[in-house]
Structure formats: structure tokens, C-alpha cells
Amino acid sequence: MLCAHNLSIKKSPLRSLLLLVASIIAVAVTSPQSHAATIEVIHSTVPGHATAQVPGQPGEEFIKFWRPYRSPNGLYWGMKANADFFDDGQMVLLGDAGGNTEVVIIDGDAATWAPGEIVTNVDHQVGLDDDGEIVFGVNTDNNAGNDEFIMRWDGAFHVVVNEGDAVPGLAGVTFADSMLDAHILSDGTVCFRAINCDGLPSDSDTLLIRGSSVLVREQTTIPAGQAAGGTQGWDFFEFDGFYHSYDGLNYLIFGDLEGDTATDGVVVVNGNVVIQEGYPIPPLVIPVGSGFTGLREARMESNGDWFARGGNSDGRDFVVRNGSLLALTDDPVIPASSEHFDDTPPFTETFFMQAGNNLGQYVVGGTTDLADTNRDAVVVLNGTDVIVREGDRVDLNGNGLDDDDAFISEFDNDQSFLTDNRLVFTATLRNDAGTEIGQAIMQTCLAATVGDLNGDCEVNALDFPAIADCLTGPSGGILGGCDPANLDDDGDVDLADAAIFIEAVQTPLNVEVDAGTLASATASTGSYFSNGNDLAGSINATGVDPSALDIAWTVTASPPGSGTVTVFDPDQLNSQFVIAAPSVAGEYRFRLTVSSDHPPIEVSDTVILTLTE
Question: Can you give the C-alpha Rg of the chain in angstroms?
Fold first, then answer.
């Protein structure tokens, strides 16, 4: 988890009884329900509040958070932050799945890898691997021309590259005064952007580095697939615009080409232009705008899914994933909703967030036409569920309850990530009077989870100590910090709460959903049936009586408008789903979800239909 509920560990005479009962549970599993999850603050900049304290720096408080980044497995996260001490206290934070946060490096520290030098600046993009190692760019106070570093930290500091080191494959060329946008691949390869390399002409001295090779060079490298047969080289790489999938098989670059500034902005995936200013994104016919109104952000997730957002020349903004449209200004926020995405002033952009996880799920954040201006910004999961909204109450003190005078005021642009079970994001907070009180990095589970007592969005053995040490017995009241363990809301924590918890853990959620496969097909009107293309939903529910499941099948198609899906037997364990797909070539995803209220389960599987011309 990223943020615990901070349950105090108190000794209880009933602890051994509960642990004895719990010991019969062989496998602990997740038990998600419909979304009503608490939004928990991990850290904040609220003056004087405990969440504003910088770990390991007594008395020092955070004053700003930058974009958070996750490890591919979602167990670790890292980010740049600022605090109210030396030189605005620039630092790199590392959080882990145990609820711990530590300062990796801080402005003013001794640069232990460079004796006698002091850290003076850290880059805002960091990269993490699945073991919690983190890479980042950093400067020292050395004025001798070698003060720039790309560092790797695994508990100790390791220099990856130092200013003045030779650039691989380019004789006589050395790294110079700016290296940033660092990220790391599964095999340990470190990638980054190097600006102003010495020994190269000034118009071609920026490089994108992958390990021991130059992946892309300014001006020299010419992306394929440019509109109208263009052959322009790279002119500029956007900050925070260089990514790889974790396996290293895919990469994304966001930047500008040489030539006409009305058509120079591009998103490039694996060397090919996938979006270009001045040209439409199918199936739209209006071209992408230029300059500030055009492409605004692009990123690639660890599984290789890529996202981009921007605006068209008609003023409508868009979010795209893997070339398919996810959301557009004036679209309903969720299907059949009377609330629409909207950028009516004071908003200049409709969308402020897009992120995906390894399961193919995604979130889109945008402003809307809701009349209540204190609630007109939303974050939508998979195009179907609003999981966070401006004005939502947040849990600031970590007691698991929404009992703090703290509400979401304004989401930060592009400062979020999505794991398989939670969304982490930053936003400013306000109180009930409407006064801004600070910024926070927060998390919310993608589904509310009864019995999740340590805030990791799962119910498993890690929750045992929390409820065991909170037991007081009937009418025994609630120990300090133990409010989340009062699962039946009766004012105490007793064996009735333990029974609810154990039922949640025992719920046999080793339920597997198989959505079948969809073969590529030629785009045409009509439907895709069995023996051609067929969604065949089936359930394998080991350890539970299938007849006891209260089944409900649903199908979510993305992007919106991907076609009509007919569910034959939505209340049966196995059902067929026939697609009446659109006649436009493209990639269409269909997510089958089976849910049950008794016991509470929600399991999904996604298939992709590719239609060619």
C-alpha cells in the first residue's frame, strides 16, 4: 500500500482467539465491491499537519509535490518534492507497498559519490524498477564542468553517467551540462535525455540514450510515417516526453520536428509518427491544433500502452490511447450521462489526466458542464465510473474515515499514476469554507474493499494484526486509531467485526474470467458471431458453490462507440456476447466483468478486436 490507515497496535486478550480462527484461512484474496473508497492523503503541504512532515527531517514540512511515478508492478512509487528549508528543499521521495516513505536525496546533502561536493538540484522525472531501485538526474555544486549526473539508488548511490563521460558510439563526443528524463528497464538498462553534448553541432547535440547506445539524435534521426510524406528530423524533445515499456520492446517520444511549426508537433512510438499537429486523429476529421492548443502531453505505461492528450483546431480536446479515441470535449462523462466533458471558461483545457495500468484499465480526468462549479471536475475509470470528483472529502489524518475538513479543490495536470488496484494523484485541497489549505498526494482504491484495514486496497493476511489488536469485545468501545476495524458500525470492535473480516478474507475470489479471443477481421458492417469472432465469457470459481453466486455480467467497450455488445445470459456463469462492431478500422477493447453481491466479487478480462481496412 501507499498509505496505511495508521491503526494503532494495541494488545488485546482476544488477539489469540482471532489469530486461531484466522489460521484456518489458507489463502487470502482481494474482495472488491462497488466503488465508494476513501481518498487517503499520503503526504500534504497543509501547514502544521502531520502529513506535511518530511520523513527523517524533524520540523521540516513539504511545500510542493511534483509528478509521481510508479514501479511497473505498482509496489513502489517515487517523485520530486520541495520542502521549506535549504534552497526550497528539493528532494526525491521513495514510497513502498508497506506504507513507508523515505527521502532518497535532498538538496544540500553531501554528494557521497563525489567527495567534497554538495547536491544542488534534482530532476523531476524519476524511474523505478520492480525492486524499488530508482534512477534520476542530479546536480552538484562542482563548477569544474562535471556537476551533472544520472544516478541509480538501491540503498546506496551508483553513478550511471557523469558530465564529461564519453557518449557511446560517437567518437570525441561527451555528455555535458544537462541530463534528465531518466527511467530504467527490467534488465537494468538506464535510459535518459542528454542535452548540449560537447563535440556536436549546436542544432544536433541533444540525444536520447538507451544504456550503451544512442537511440535518437536531434536533427539526424528522421521518424517514419510523417504526414504528407514528410522527412523532417527531430528539432526538440519535450521535457517528461521520453518513455519505454518495462521490457524495453516499445518506446515513446514526444516533441517537435524541424520545418513548419503548424505541423511539427508529434508523438512517435517505436520510431513511427502516431499523432501529428495539423492532421486528424481517425475517426475524427478535424486536424489536431498547433502550438499550445495542439499536443499537450504524451506518456507510455510499463505494459507498452501509450496515451496522448491535446486539442483539435475546432477547440475540442481529446484523449487517445494506442491511437484510439478515449474521450472528447462534449462527450458524456459516462455513457448516457447528462453531464459532459467541457472546457467553458475559466477552463482552457478539458482534460488534465490520463493514465493506465498493466491490466489495460485507464483513467481520464476532465472538467465538465456541471452547474456546480465546486464539483465540475471528474476522474473516470474505464469510461464508465466516476471514481474521484472535485469537492470529494479526503481522509487527511489517516484514521480511515472522511471526518476531516478537507476536500479536493483542483487537480494537478498530468500528476498521477494507476496501478492494478489504486489511483495515486496530486491535487490542491480546500476546507468547507472554500479556503485552500494546501496540496496533497493521495490514493484511492479502484473498488471499496470491506476488511481492508491497512489501506493497500486488498483484504489479506497483512490486515490480520490490525483487527486482532483492535478487539475490545462487546460494548468495549474503540481504541485510538481503530475506527476502520469497526466493520459493523456498532461502536466497538468485537467478534462480530472479526467474523465480517474473516468472511471477506475467505470469500473465494480465486474466480477466473475468460473472455475468449478475438481474431483480427476486415472492417465491415454487421456483427461478429461464434466461429468468427465471439466473446465467450466463462467463470472458474474454485472453492465456492457456483449456485451461490449472484452473477451479473457486464461489457465495457473502449473507446466509446466501439460497437453494441449483446449479452445473452447476463445472470449465468457462462454467457456469450455478440459484437455489432463499427465499420471503421482500428483497435477496439472489450472488457468483460462478472460481479456478485453474495459473495462480493468483481473480476474482469479484456480482449482486443482489430479491424483492418
Answer: 25
Give the closest residue to 232 by CA, choosing from 218, 213, 243, 242. Answer: 218
Which cell is 426 given? 496530486
Distance CA 263, CA 248 (A): 29
- Better-scored residue on pLDDT, 541 or 556: 556
Residues 421-434 as b/e (b if ≥16 CB within 10 A, e otherwise) read bbbbbbbebbeeee
Q: Where are the alpha helices (DSSP H) in 189-264?
A: none
Which of these, 213, 196, 206, 88, lies nearest to 145 by C-alpha position? 196
Q: Tell me the per-residue pLDDT of 257-289, one tens digit each, with 9 for 90 and over.
A: 999 999 999 999 999 999 999 999 988 999 999
- Residue 92: φ, ψ to 5°: -115, 125
Question: CA angle 261-265-270, nearest 5°?
Answer: 145
pTM equals 0.76
First and final CA of the chain: distance in angstroms?
45
C-alpha cell read off for 346: 475559466
Q: Following CA atoms 339, 341, 346, 347 in sequence, which dihedral angle do they give, to the nearest 10 degrees?
A: 160
Strands across the sheet with 511-514, in order?
A: 511-514, 535-541, 575-580, 564-567
Give the 3-state secondary structure of residue 502: helix
Exposure letters 124-145 (e unless 16+ CB within 10 A, then b): bbbbbbeebbbbbbbbbebeee
- Counting other chains too, the contacts that 472-481 makes at CB distance below 8 Å and 24 or more residues apart are 472/12, 473/14, 479/8, 479/10, 480/8, 480/10, 481/5, 481/6, 481/7, 481/8, 481/399
- Cell numbers representing residue 238 in the block: 519535450
Nearest CA to 386 among 437, 451, 441, 446?
446
CB 565 within 8 Å of CB 557 = yes
d(CA 595, CA 578) in angstroms, rounded, equals 19
Would you put residue 382 in left (φ > 0), alpha (ψ -120 to 50) or beta?
A: left
Reported as a single tens digit per residue, the pLDDT across 198-208 is: 999 999 999 99
Give SS3 for 120: strand
pLDDT at 526 > cutoff 50: yes
What's the CA gap between 277 and 582, in Å, rounded?
Answer: 26
Query: What distance in Å separates the CA atoms of residue 590 and residue 562, rounded to the nearest whole number?
Result: 9
